[in-house]
């Protein structure tokens, strides 16, 4: 470590070093000069580099090195493609383009398996949810398998299991980004809202079709929408069932940004990589806190779970456990009572 003076000099030197000199030792991808020239538009500015950029390097715009994961929890995926990049990103793609990526119970079940895997994988820090092709993110429930009481698979049991998927995305302790090209309508638009962030291509179209096909979502599909766009707009979206282009969706607060279709994944990866640089615990607790403000007891439970997780990592928490196992009274006197 060295004395404080040496450490200060080292810190200053790190700030002053040109970015390239630090690339070899960094796990984070760094923007190359040639890439920088293509990143002019959109939200990442190319102005003079900040001290943060000098220390951390610019965020890479290179494509991700995706690894396909065809089998999850022992079962082969059919309706969904699941990929991971070693830099810490998982991508879940609804793969039914011939149906505009409408989901049937099997699709939803496969998505839940992938989200569960991404949650448990300590190397994954952010998850992308998207649809195959440029025509649709997801067109909602597959109306051709809708029966009485829900959507029906080979087991003939009618299900609305997309509601479980919504909760899973909401509670996933890692950011989930919807990457939307084409239609995000019906239950697909609700999935988009459940994600923490939505990045839309210029061709994206959003809206509710439920009332037109005899369906509605009176859960998150209504409550989350009203929180995002306000009462008047939410009523307009549901009562008229119109469709809205990407710019309109941005203006009303349904999504975070609009990018050219050909740059959709590139831009989404930049957002992922920026997120990956940040403290996973900070992100985890922030997501729980942002949920808690809306989710009542369930939200407090999620936030409270994070408090316990952190407490279990402290000396004070472990003193209680150790004392129990050693069959002695715990000594909590050594721990401060902060004001
Ligand atoms: C999405 C469209 C606007 C796209 O239009 P276009 O590009 O012209 O393509 P099409 O030619 O219409 O479609 C191509 C092909 O795909 C089939 N298809 C598309 N969407 C669906 C679908 N949702 N179900 C079944 N099949 C679909 C279409 O029939 C064509 O097939 P061909 O064989 O070639 O004819 C347009 O396609 C469209 O409007 N689609 C319907 C959108 C819709 O109404 N979705 C259902 C809304 S209701 C819902 O999602 C509820 C879901 C749910 O489970 C739920 C229930 C209760 C509470 C909550 C939820 C929830 O949150 O989801």
From TrEMBL:
<dbReference type="InterPro" id="IPR014748">
    <property type="entry name" value="Enoyl-CoA_hydra_C"/>
</dbReference>
<protein>
    <recommendedName>
        <fullName>1,4-dihydroxy-2-naphthoyl-CoA synthase</fullName>
        <ecNumber>4.1.3.36</ecNumber>
    </recommendedName>
</protein>
<dbReference type="GO" id="GO:0008935">
    <property type="term" value="F:1,4-dihydroxy-2-naphthoyl-CoA synthase activity"/>
</dbReference>
<keyword id="KW-0456">Lyase</keyword>
<dbReference type="InterPro" id="IPR010198">
    <property type="entry name" value="DHNA-CoA_synthase_MenB"/>
</dbReference>
<dbReference type="GO" id="GO:0009234">
    <property type="term" value="P:menaquinone biosynthetic process"/>
</dbReference>
<dbReference type="GO" id="GO:0005829">
    <property type="term" value="C:cytosol"/>
</dbReference>
<dbReference type="InterPro" id="IPR029045">
    <property type="entry name" value="ClpP/crotonase-like_dom_sf"/>
</dbReference>
<dbReference type="Pfam" id="PF00378">
    <property type="entry name" value="ECH_1"/>
</dbReference>
<feature type="region of interest" description="Disordered">
    <location>
        <begin position="34"/>
        <end position="55"/>
    </location>
</feature>
<comment type="similarity">
    <text>Belongs to the enoyl-CoA hydratase/isomerase family.</text>
</comment>
<dbReference type="InterPro" id="IPR001753">
    <property type="entry name" value="Enoyl-CoA_hydra/iso"/>
</dbReference>
<feature type="compositionally biased region" description="Low complexity">
    <location>
        <begin position="34"/>
        <end position="51"/>
    </location>
</feature>
<dbReference type="InterPro" id="IPR018376">
    <property type="entry name" value="Enoyl-CoA_hyd/isom_CS"/>
</dbReference>
